[in-house]
């Protein structure tokens, strides 16, 4: 059977993007076969290039979010640089931007303006708080939006709220922008017309707050911060083991509690003890419940504890650090790791989680150097050698 092409092969995306939200969205498009042209500043490019040097001298955020793209560096404040982007957009299917609020409109690169000029274009505006309302012009970094969306209020311990360890607001906006583009491409296939797509970080993350938000709206109280424990289920926590590991255990119903009591705790009478027999009772006596589970698992090594829990048909997991994730046996068995090219040589990267059996493999292209494709893209929009030389001489292109 002939292999299916990648679903976005033939789709061209132009992105004036920085940081995480837009770059992560367009990287998903690139992985699925789209050609993504990344427009960067001439003085350092996407500022995420400077976040750190952890990836053999490159920034880890940039490596993660920007493989498979072509980089062109032009000065959008110069009319000649802006004209280059407009020429690129003329032949594009999708345009994505996440500039500071109002900046794209001043340049004529906002979705409404571009879609009015190019009816088949799908143009995406990613913002922190949306185009209107009292927060429209506020700076919107990931941690700030995590706070505004309430994520920090439900994350951490009873004593200390904490932000998520990943840029959750950026990722939420990126994934809604990605799915918004896919939906708009489907609609264009039916109607022949593109159109604007708007995504805000606050609205994206507020949607992800569904369970605690609805619990508060309809139950009247916000779920408590419980660390690794669950606010309304017990036992559900991470428990230390004899060899220094930690095992996460989740008992979802009373039948599972009885199996835990008999096969792991060695205390079958706890299965019918009124203080523990129901989830409500175990939550009410959480401290004693956790003590019983902790004593049993604390006497076992991590591997043995997991084996006993799995043998009893109970949900459990090993609490891994990131080096252990990089060596995860499931990821290895499913051959999820690849190498991508970069200016510093090959770097490990995970295959994208969307798998399309029977189709071409995801296109995990190289991480581009700043302005690596400037010259070929300038030629592609019709510029002569003299015009290109003038742009470089005047600091408009790099």
Which features would summarize this protein structure in a list?
single chain; alpha/beta; 17 helices; three-stranded antiparallel sheet; about 400 residues
Explain the overall architecture.
The chain is of the alpha/beta class and 398 residues long. 39% of the residues lie in helices and 14% in strands. It has 17 helices and eleven strands. Strands 3-2-1-4-5-6 form a six-stranded parallel beta sheet, sandwiched between helices. The chain has a three-stranded antiparallel beta sheet with strand order 7-8-9, covered by helices on one side. The radius of gyration is 26 Å and the shape is elongated. The model has no long low-confidence stretch (mean pLDDT 96).
């Amino acid at each position: 059977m002939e292999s299916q092409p990648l679903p976005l092969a033939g789709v061209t995306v132009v992105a004036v993007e920085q940081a995480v939200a837009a770059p992560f969205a367009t990287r998903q498009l690139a992985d699925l076969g789209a050609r993504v042209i990344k427009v960067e500043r001439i003085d350092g490019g996407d500022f995420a290039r400077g976040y750190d040097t952890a990836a053999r001298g490159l920034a880890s955020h940039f490596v993660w979010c920007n493989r498979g793209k072509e980089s062109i560096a032009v000065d959008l404040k110069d009319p000649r640089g802006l004209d280059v982007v407009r020429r690129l957009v003329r032949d594009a299917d999708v345009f994505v931007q996440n500039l500071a609020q109002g900046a794209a409109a001043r340049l004529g690169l906002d979705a409404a303006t571009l879609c009015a000029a190019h009816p088949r274009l799908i143009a995406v505006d990613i913002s922190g708080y949306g185009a209107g309302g009292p927060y429209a012009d506020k700076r919107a970094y990931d941690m700030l939006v995590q706070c505004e969306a309430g994520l920090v209020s439900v994350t951490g311990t009873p004593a200390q709220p904490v932000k998520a360890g990943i840029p959750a607001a950026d990722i939420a906006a990126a994934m809604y922008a990605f799915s918004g583009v896919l939906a708009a491409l489907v609609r264009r296939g039916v109607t022949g017309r593109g159109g604007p797509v708007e995504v805000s970080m606050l609205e994206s993350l507020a949607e992800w707050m569904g369970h605690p938000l609805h619990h508060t709206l309809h139950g009247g109280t916000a779920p408590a911060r419980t660390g690794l424990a669950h606010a309304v289920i017990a036992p559900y926590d991470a428990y230390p083991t004899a060899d220094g590991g930690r095992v996460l255990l989740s008992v979802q119903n009373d039948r599972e509690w009885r199996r835990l009591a008999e096969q792991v705790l060695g205390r079958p009478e706890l299965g019918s003890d009124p203080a523990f027999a129901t989830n409500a009772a175990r939550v009410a006596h959480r401290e004693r419940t956790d003590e019983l589970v902790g004593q049993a698992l604390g006497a076992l090594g991590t591997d043995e504890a997991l084996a006993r829990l799995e043998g009893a048909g109970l949900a459990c997991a090993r609490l891994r650090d990131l080096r252990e994730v990089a060596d995860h046996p499931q990821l290895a068995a499913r051959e999820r790791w690849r190498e991508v090219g970069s200016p510093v040589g090959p770097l490990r990267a995970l295959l994208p989680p969307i798998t399309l059996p029977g189709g071409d493999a995801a296109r995990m292209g190289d991480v581009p150097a700043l302005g690596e494709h400037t010259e070929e893209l300038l030629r592609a929009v019709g510029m002569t050698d003299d015009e290109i030389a003038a742009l470089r001489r005047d600091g408009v292109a790099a």
